[in-house]
Design brief:
Length: 487
Amino acid sequence: MLQYISNKGGGDPVDLETAILDGYATDGGLYVPEYLPKISADQLAKWKSLSYPALAFEILSLFIDRAAISAEELRQIIQRSYQTFEKEEVIPIKELESRPETYIMELFYGSTLSFKDVGLSFLINLVDFFLQRKKKRLSIIVATTGDTGPAAASYIAGKSTLDAWVLYPKGLITEEQERQMTTLTQQNVHPVGVYHCPDGGDDLDLVISQLYANQGFKEKVNLSSVNSLNWGRIMIQTVHYFYGYLQVVDEVGDDLSMVVPSGGFGNLCAGGIARKMGLPVKQLVIANNKNACLHRIFSVGRFSKAPLHETVSSAIDILIPINFWRYLYFCVNGDTARIKQWTEEFDRSGSVQFDQEIHQAYSDGYLSMSISDDMTISTIKDVYESEQYLLDPHTAVSVAVANSLTGQLAHHKVICLSTAHPAKFPGIIQRALGSKMLPEDATHPSIETAKRRCQKGYTADLAHLEEALLHSMSAHWEENEIRTTED
């Protein structure tokens, strides 16, 4: 049976169910599988014609023991997760007319119009499956810079096994993203808008880590998370890398690169793991905005924190890419002592400089680049004027990077991951196109409906956020316990 351990080396190995339900490992590390399954070229060739759900079943089965979840149960979870997506193929892939051999992987056809739906729809249904079997309830806490929160809230809404506490930096996400959380009417969804977050979502992650360290509180409210620190998110996100490659190449083994807008490295961590499992991607390309946290890591070998820049691609305005530590584990042959040493050094000093050997080990097969807001805006305009195809500002970051790295990406196909629907960013689209009139592609019925709904939620100041959450989450848990007992 495949078991899961902390990338920092603390605690005992656990099964998949424990890793998924706990979120963080007991020592504060990130869960990783004891080994990565390997997939041969022959196996990939057999999978080439599979639908996304069928491919997800094959890949997830490599990580999920049949004693934990039967084949039929896994198929049902996958079907339930993707049957509500707008497109039958779940993830359509479009070839750009104006850029030869460049494809857009549209990952935004779930309920909240972002790629987070692809991972969270499955992960939350998996968590719900485990909890129903255990007759247990969890408090889920998530920090969001725009897309994780709406997706988590949407898929948790109405589930009897879960309460969602979704924290977001007030004023640093779009109104459309905020309303996707605050207009949900289900009583188990609790949006929390937090004022005065100079480091955006990273400030919220710090408070969440403090809550996790409070063992009494953690046990009282059964605290867990479904953001990208949860292994389940990484596991399911490996699938769309395999799917995109198999859909676009003519034959398995052909060169293909993937360009990914990224801040926290969760999506790209999954891509790196997919390649270590045997996916023959030529280059994984990190498309950073001005914050450039990942570009520093991969270009000069320095993991460091810098002041936050508010950009038009706000969902990747992230300073501390926590999933880099998970990927690094696989690049240093599972040396947990070194991971622990580096993370502690970063906690003390705010910076880690890797030596040349380590830098080479993790950067092999990666390219990276940082893109300005001006380049992002002009890319939206250029692509729309060229072929009437509208990019959201995060997808535009990936296309701008692909344009800028044409020399390194020449002579083979390139997939740019499109991580959100442009309807979530109307102000930026108007700015890019130079018009107050939005094209039809920049609207969506769910976004328009949310504009006409009442909003609910909590607000708090960052200075008092931990105390506020201890109070509100405890009070809600106690009320629910009383209500459950009376029922």
